[in-house]
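Appendix C: a fully annotated inverse folding record. The material below is reproduced so that readers can follow the format used throughout the book. The structure is listed first as tokens, followed by the designed sequence.
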């Protein structure tokens, strides 16, 4: 893909979603880590409903390990895979207490060793909590990147991340991550993408296929 096409995509989604940001409610790095862990295979809206009560009850890693596992399970039972996630949370909190003084580590390679924390979660935490440029590839980012030709159809999540890091200026990584999520969540949806009114139809492989007739972009003068 040409650099001009990448810039066109970034500028367009920027105009569509200028205020895109993390939609998981949190007040610190620890709460963000818990929220992102809970968000796996679950909507941010559902996570926010659960964490509204959860974060009032549990303030520190010690709070989470001080209750029976069954109690924590009940506190997050509206979340998908809640039993596994409850175990991850307690194990994660135990490690934070034992190895990091109860604080969330800022290093990416340390974060990914924590229970329930994969590369995506670590990228979200370092970028949103610690200001380190990163692109977290969730289902929205992956879908949109492949449809727009920023990545190949068969690319793995890691390959998508690497390709985005290569074509997107580093200082725009975190913002682009949020904007791609908003674009995929509210516009370029999995089942019903709004191709008929999409300003990126000219560079979208999926959109051209759905609409049958490609549209030529008019360069701004």
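Designed amino acids, in order:
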């Amino acid at each position: 893909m040409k650099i001009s096409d990448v810039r066109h995509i970034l500028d367009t989604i920027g105009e569509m979603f200028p205020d895109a940001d993390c939609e998981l409610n949190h007040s610190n790095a620890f709460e963000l880590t818990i929220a992102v862990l809970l968000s796996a295979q679950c909507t941010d809206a559902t996570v926010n409903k659960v964490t509204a009560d959860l974060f009032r009850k549990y303030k520190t890693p010690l709070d989470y390990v001080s209750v029976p596992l069954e109690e924590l399970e009940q506190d997050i039972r509206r979340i998908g895979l809640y039993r596994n996630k409850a175990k991850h949370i307690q194990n994660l909190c135990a490690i934070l207490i034992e190895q990091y003084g109860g604080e969330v580590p800022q290093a990416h390679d340390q974060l990914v060793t924590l229970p329930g924390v994969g590369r995506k979660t670590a990228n979200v935490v370092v970028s949103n909590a610690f200001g380190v440029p990163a692109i977290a590839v969730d289902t929205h980012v992956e879908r949109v990147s492949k449809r727009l030709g920023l990545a190949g159809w068969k690319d793995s999540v890691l390959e998508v991340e690497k390709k985005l890091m290569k074509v997107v200026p580093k200082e725009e990584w975190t913002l682009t991550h949020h904007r791609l999520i908003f674009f995929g969540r509210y516009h370029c949806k999995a089942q019903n993408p709004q191709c008929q009114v999409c300003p990126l139809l000219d560079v979208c492989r999926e959109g051209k296929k759905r609409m049958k007739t490609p549209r030529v972009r008019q360069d701004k003068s």
